[in-house]
Every structure is written in C-alpha cells, then in structure tokens.
C-alpha cells in the first residue's frame, strides 16, 4: 500500500468518514458512483470493486462484463453537502481495469492518460483552464413546457438579492472546500446563465474537477430549490453554454507557447498547435460537441464559434490568442471556444491535445488570422478567405469523425466504435421527432 492510500485510510478514521463514494465516468461523460463502507476501502485499493461493465454505457458486451473500479487515492476529497447534518462523505475517482489488471479500453480517464503520455514523450505537459457556463432554472416548467430562468439578469449584472449571486457563492465555497480552486465567477449573458472559471491545472486534474464541478453545481441548486443545467442551448433566442478552455504546453517550467517578440508572443510551437486545432476541428467536433443540441448553440449566434478560424481579439473565432498579460511569459496560452460544458471532458481534452500535437509533429502552417467578425461575412467572403464551417449538425460531425484516423487512434477502437454507434442512434431518434416549430408553422398551412 502506498503513502497516498495510507493517508486516505488515516483521514477517514480521524474525520469519522462513514461512507465512501467511488466515481467514474461512462463514455458519454455521465458520472457513475458506487458506495462502499470505509472498512472495505483497504481491500478496494488492492483488489478493486467489481461491477457489471455491460450495464454501463459503452463499457463492455455481456460476455466480457467483469470490470473493476480501482480507487485513485490522489483524488480523495471529503464532501459535505451544504446544510447536511450527517458526517462527511469521502469520494475518489477510479481507474477502470479488466480482471487481469490491464486498463479497460472504455475508461475515459485512461483515454486521456494515453494522450497525456504521448505529450510527455514529446517533452510536454498539457495544462487547461476551463470557463464553465450553465443555467439555473425554476423547478417547474412554464405552461408551454419551457424552462423558466431563475433570474432575468444579463452579462456581469450584480443582483444584490439575486439567487444566482448567492448560488455562486455557495457553489464556490463547496468547490474550494474540496480543493478545487476557482478563479472567477459572474452572471453570463442569458437570463439564469452563470459562469464559474476553474484555475489552471494539468488536463487530467481539470477533467476530474469538471466532473466534480457539475455534481456540486447540481447539488447546490437542488438545495436552493432550483435546477442546474449544462445543456448547450436550453433557450431559443439566447446564448448557449460553452466551456471555453485556455490551453498551454509546458516543457518543464517553461511555457512552450511563449516567445518574446513574436506576434502575440506566440511561439512556433504554439502556432503549430493552433494550426493542428484548426486542421482537425471538424473531425473532433462530435467529441467536443457531442449532442444534437450542441449544434444549436454553435449555429445559434451569441458569440458561439461556427467557423474554423483563429484571431487575436476576435470573439467570433474558434481559437483566440488572448493577451491579458503580454509581459508574463508563463501566461501565454490559446483559448478554444468551441467546446461546450456537456462534453465528456476526458475524451474532449484527449482529442484536442491530439490535434494540437499533430500540428506540432507535422509542422502545420497557421493560416491567416481572421480579423473581421466571421458571423458578419457572407458565405462567399468566408470561402474566399479559406474559412470552413464547423459541422452544422451532429450528423455532419459524425460523418467527419468516421473518416478520422486521428480520433480513432486517440480514443481507441472500443470507444471510437461505441461513440459513433451511440451518436448515430441519437441522430436517428432526433430526426424522427416532430418539433413544436413544425407543428406551429406547417399544421394549418399545408
């Protein structure tokens, strides 16, 4: 037993933790949990917790169902839900293995670990900083079946008695009590929409933190009589929820994206990384924007990026090069704006990293910067500038992903095949629906 595991067992005893939750993520990014008594934890560290993998989305077929959840002691935290009078609950993320101890090919954490190892082999450490947007709604829908935002505020609005303000404070308190540092929080542009930004961390820690974040936000919302949603586009006519993520590569203590005197202080490594993001943008979209509803955010306005381009001060671009601290080399980074907050963060960061590394390996040339508002250009103008659109629907994104060697290699055969099958079924089910728009516009006219 290693020191981290011994620390967990000692902490559980000292703090009277009476219940442990072991967390892992299915292929679609949904959190799964199994509870164990603290007395069983020592055995779980050495032998794992067995479960039926065939019952979890994308994990295993019936005849290969035996699967083990192996707790990762480095992720241990004590959770105490607000206003709860019960003893604290411990939680740890798990790595999923097969009975012979090899990593499960369906384990999202393992997919990201594999991508990070590839970066490490090239001498890089991958850091990420997400800006996570979400909505707060009343518990009951309105008479028309639509969600009701918790407030009617706008971007950066301060509501002295606002539910959103109180909510963010409670959520941040809980996140920081769990060792998840928060950088900023504010009201976003749509009614009931909020944003909380997590601090920079290595990509695996960030992905774990995002999964914890979504759980904390939902729990705090329920405690306050509200509903939190990470649906990319819940309200027509208002901006959707993205997860703009700032990305950087480090070589030891040196930021590999920083080059003093270069345009925007961005090094050749950074430029090739951005070129990789752009070159592979369409084929990774099904992973970074995995739901039917994701494409209503991308193509619904509200500064969502719908075209493959980059810019400096251009918030219509898919990739932006921020310059908040131009003299501070460690802060050099690129901002990917297409991600939404309902993705599987492990798989999304894995394919994003793979695309950027491919750009470095193959020495991709960065195309010309998009200086204009890309949304304001005509299709002909965008074509003349060589600006491609992102997929316009999940169906288009699936078609692009199917042809991608990069995504297949990054996800592995098992996850790649399951993901495509699942998304084809989602599109098939969606395509068969008759929407309120169709009823309203066609029922009495045709």
Key terms:
globular; 6-stranded mixed sheet; Ubiquitin-like (UB roll); Creatine Kinase, Chain A, domain 2; 36% helix; alpha+beta
Radius of gyration: 22 Å
- Average pLDDT, all residues: 90
Percent of residues in β-strands: 15-25%
What is the name of the CATH architecture of the largest domain? 2-Layer Sandwich
Structural class: alpha+beta
Q: Write the CATH homologous superfamily of the largest domain.
A: Glutamine synthetase/guanido kinase, catalytic domain
CATH class of the largest domain: Alpha Beta
Task: Give the strand tally.
Answer: 18
How is the CATH topology of the largest domain named?
A: Creatine Kinase, Chain A, domain 2
Q: Can you tell me the number of structural domains?
A: 2
Parts with pLDDT < 50 across at least 5 consecutive residues: none
Major β-sheet, in short?
10 strands, mixed
> What is the rounded distance between the termini?
72 Å
Pfam family, one: Gln-synt_C
Family: Belongs to the glutamine synthetase family.
Cofactor: Mg(2+)
Domain GS beta-grasp: 15-101
Description of the molecule:
Belongs to the glutamine synthetase family. It holds the Pfam family Gln-synt_C. The protein has two domains: 3-106, Glutamine synthetase, N-terminal domain (Ubiquitin-like (UB roll)), CATH 3.10.20.70; 118-406, Glutamine synthetase/guanido kinase, catalytic domain (Creatine Kinase, Chain A, domain 2, 2-Layer Sandwich), CATH 3.30.590. The chain starts with a helix and ends with a helix. By secondary structure, the chain is an alpha+beta fold. Strands 7, 8, 9, 10, 11, 12, 13, 15, 16 and 17 form a ten-stranded mixed sheet that branches. The longest helix is centred in the middle third of the chain and has 21 residues, at 203-223. It contains 14 helices and 18 strands. The protein has helices spanning 3-14, 41-47, 108-121, 163-177, 203-223, 268-279, 281-288, 294-298, 345-361, 379-384, 394-402, 405-411, 413-431, 436-442, and strands at residues 19-25, 31-36, 49-52, 66-71, 77-79, 89-97, 125-138, 182-187, 193-198, 201-202, 226-229, 243-251, 254-255, 307-308, 310-311, 319-320, 334-336, 388-389. Helix 3 runs parallel beside helix 9. A hairpin with a 5-residue loop joins strand 8 (182-187) and strand 9.
């Amino acid at each position: 037993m290693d020191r981290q595991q011994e620390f967990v067992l000692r902490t559980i005893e000292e703090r009277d933790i009476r219940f442990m939750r072991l967390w892992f993520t299915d292929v679609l990014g949904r959190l799964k949990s199994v509870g164990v008594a603290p007395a069983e934890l020592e055995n779980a560290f050495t032998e794992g917790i067995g479960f039926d993998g065939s019952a979890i989305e994308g994990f295993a077929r019936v005849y290969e169902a035996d699967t083990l959840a192996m707790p990762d002691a480095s992720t241990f935290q004590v959770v105490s839900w607000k206003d709860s009078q019960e003893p604290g609950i411990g939680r740890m993320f798990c790595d999923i293995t097969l009975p012979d101890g090899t990593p499960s090919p369906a384990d999202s954490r393992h997919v990201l670990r594999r991508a990070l190892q590839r970066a490490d082999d090239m001498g890089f450490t991958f850091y990420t900083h997400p800006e996570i947007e979400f909505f707060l709604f009343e518990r009951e829908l309105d008479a028309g079946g639509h969600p009701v935002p918790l407030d009617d505020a706008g971007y950066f609005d301060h509501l002295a008695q606002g539910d959103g303000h109180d909510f963010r404070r409670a959520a941040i308190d809980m996140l920081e009590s769990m060792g998840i540092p928060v950088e900023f929080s504010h009201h976003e542009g749509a009614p009931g929409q909020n944003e909380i930004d997590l601090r920079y961390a290595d990509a695996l820690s960030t992905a774990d933190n995002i999964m914890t974040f979504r759980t904390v936000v939902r729990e705090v919302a329920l405690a306050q009589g509200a509903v939190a949603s990470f649906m990319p586009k819940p309200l027509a006519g208002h901006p959707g929820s993205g997860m703009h993520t700032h990305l950087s590569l480090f070589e030891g203590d040196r930021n590999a994206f920083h080059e003093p005197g270069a345009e925007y202080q961005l090094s050749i490594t950074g430029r090739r990384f951005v070129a990789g993001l752009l070159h592979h943008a369409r084929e990774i979209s099904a992973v970074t924007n995995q739901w039917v509803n994701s494409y209503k955010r991308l193509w619904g306005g509200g500064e969502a990026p719908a075209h493959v381009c980059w810019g400096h001060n251009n918030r219509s671009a898919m990739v932006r090069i921020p310059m908040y601290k131009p003299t501070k080399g460690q802060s050099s980074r690129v901002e990917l704006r297409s991600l939404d907050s309902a993705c599987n963060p492990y798989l999304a960061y894995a394919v994003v990293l793979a695309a950027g590394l491919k750009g470095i390996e193959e020495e991709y040339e960065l195309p010309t910067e998009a200086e204009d508002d890309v949304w304001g250009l005509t299709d002909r103008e965008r074509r003349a500038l060589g600006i491609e659109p992102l997929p316009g629907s999940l169906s288009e994104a699936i078609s692009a992903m199917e042809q991608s060697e990069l995504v297949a290699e990054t996800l592995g055969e098992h996850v790649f095949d399951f993901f495509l099958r699942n998304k084809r079924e989602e599109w098939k089910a969606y395509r068969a629906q008759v929407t309120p728009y169709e009823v309203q516009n066609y029922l009495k006219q045709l």
